[in-house]
């Protein structure tokens, strides 16, 4: 079974620079999804769900 991996990164993340997301994408041969205006996606940021992740998972299941 081929692996299907994606990395989600907010372009406004103050904790993890975009370069790290790109490095992870390259190491894992993953798809990089950039969320415009997105931060670190932590509970302290008020993020309770991430629709882009659900959408990508549903697409992968097809």
TrEMBL record:
Domain of life, per lineage: Bacteria
InterPro entries named among the record's database cross-references: AB_hydrolase_fold, RBBP9/YdeN
Pfam families to which the protein is assigned, alphabetical: Ser_hydrolase
GO molecular function: hydrolase activity
UniProt name for this protein: Peptidase S33 tripeptidyl aminopeptidase-like C-terminal domain-containing protein
Native organism: Candidatus Yanofskybacteria bacterium RIFCSPLOWO2_01_FULL_44_22
